[in-house]
Structures are given as structure tokens and as C-alpha cells.
Amino acid sequence: MIVKEEFLNQLRRIFNLNLYEVRIWTALLSRGVSTAGELSDIGNVPRSRTYDILESLEKRGFIIMKLGKPIKFIALKPEEVIERAKKNVAEDAKERNERLEKLRGGDTLKELTSLFTQGIKYLEPSDFSGALRGRHNLYNHLDSLIRSAEDSVTIVTTEEGLNRKFESLKSSLQKARKRGVKIRIAAPITKKNEKVAKDLAKIADVRHIGAPRSRFCVIDGKDLMFMTMDDQEVHPNYDLGVWINTPFFAATLEKMFESTWKAATPLSRAGA
User: What is the rounded CA–CA span in Å between residue 217 and residue 141?
Assistant: First the structure.
């Protein structure tokens, strides 16, 4: 059986399989029905591991065991495997979410909070900073900052960034607005993001700005988060941001931004 490594790696990522599991599974797909020994040879997997792997694949709904001797295994249609995998992921996510929800108000959360409260006493002001790599991590931290915002949120982003932030931060921005937080968003408004800009305008003051391209956020005039790279030139996994809790610098930057904000074009006149 000749299967490209690139294809196997893709399957591993999609279905969350290890190397031996994906080899055995694809080997069985190529045969339809087969024994553990035959699959071991085809997939180049140690025989001592093959039965455990087949049992794991069976439990996860990738294959079924055929009754009789010698024991054989039957491959399922890929479409059926996908549906089963989707169901398993949904059930697992629901179970994990329920476990996390049970932590609220429980002893475990109280202990964790106690540890954090004790530890934060020893932090220096310079400790409230960090570098974040990967756009997913950047948005997770920004989402956390917005959820804790009490007074103001200022976001300056790019044409593409406006679309991404709408998708990732809309819920937190809506909740912040309901708390009375003042939200300002500045970005180049074009036909590519006009619809998103109009949706965001329901919960924030959105304005059009031109060059230069900038990517930063200021929360409550004290938390500053800025991205160091041009999002047009960096892969999302390697995007880099810096977060600093610095009232002096954040407030200064926000004051400098005021002139840009006053000169920016309100969404209604942006002419996108």
C-alpha cells in the first residue's frame, strides 16, 4: 500500500489519529475486509500494537469487527466515518463544557482563585506583560481583555482584520456595550468589509481610516495590545503580539490616537 505521507499527516490532523492508527485505518480502507496480521504487514505497524489500535478504531467508529474466525475487520464508508467523528466531537465537547460549567462556584474554582490571589501579590508591575504568538492566541487574550473592560475599548485594525475581529470578538463586544463600555473601532472600510462594518456599527462607533496600516487595541486606558507584523505578510500561526498593562503608555497612545479619530470618516460617509 502506497499512501503519501502528506495525506497521512492530513488525516491525522483532521481525525486526531496517531501514526499507527492512520496507517492501520488506511490499510483497511484499501482492503475492505482484513485480518490484524495482514493489516500489520500492509501498514508497517508492529503486530504487538495492531490489536490495540484496531480496538481503538472500533470504539471510535472507524471500523467494525466481523464475527467468526479468524477475526476480521471491516472498513466503513468514509462518509459514515465522518458523520460518526462529527458526532463524537460534538458529544465530547458537550461533556467537557458541562464539566467546566460545574467548576463555577465549586471548591475547585475557589482553590484556583485562592492560588492566583496569593501569587499575584508577588508580581511586579513589569510582570504584567507578555508576548503572544499565533493569531488564535492573540484573539483569545484580546477577548479576555474585552470581557473585563469597564470603561472603554479602542480597536485599530486593518481591512482584513475587521472581518476577523467581527467573527472572533462580536459576542464579547456586545456584552461590553451592554455594560456601558464605550467602543471605538477604526479601520479601512472597503467593499470587502462594508457589511461587517455596518454590523459592528450597531454596537460600536466605527470609522474609516486610511494609511498607515496599524494593529493595536487599548482597553480602559491601561491595557495595551499591539501586533508587531503586517497581517498581509505573516502566516496566522506566526503572527506576533505584545500585551502590556501600562496605564501611562496606554493612556498616552490613546490620546495620540484622538487626532486620528477626529479626522477619521464616520461609517455613514465612508463611501465604501
Answer: 11
Ordered alpha helix ranges (H), the chain = 5-15, 19-31, 36-43, 47-59, 78-103, 107-120, 135-147, 159-178, 194-200, 247-263
The reply to whether 176 falls in a domain is: yes
Claim: this prediction has a pTM higher than 0.85: no
pLDDT tens-place string over residues 118-152: 655 555 554 457 888 999 999 999 999 999 999 99
Give which of 226, 157, 139, 219 is closest to 182, Cα–Cα.
219
**What CATH number did the domain enclosing 29 receive?**
1.10.10.10
Residue 177 lies in a domain: yes
Reading the block at residue 23, the C-alpha cell is 496507517
C-alpha–C-alpha distance, residues 244 and 252, integer Å:
13
In 3D space, the residue among 12, 8, 13 whose CA is nearest the CA of residue 44 turns out to be 8
Q: Are residues 126 and 76 in the same domain?
A: no
CATH classification of the domain holding 169: 3.30.870.10
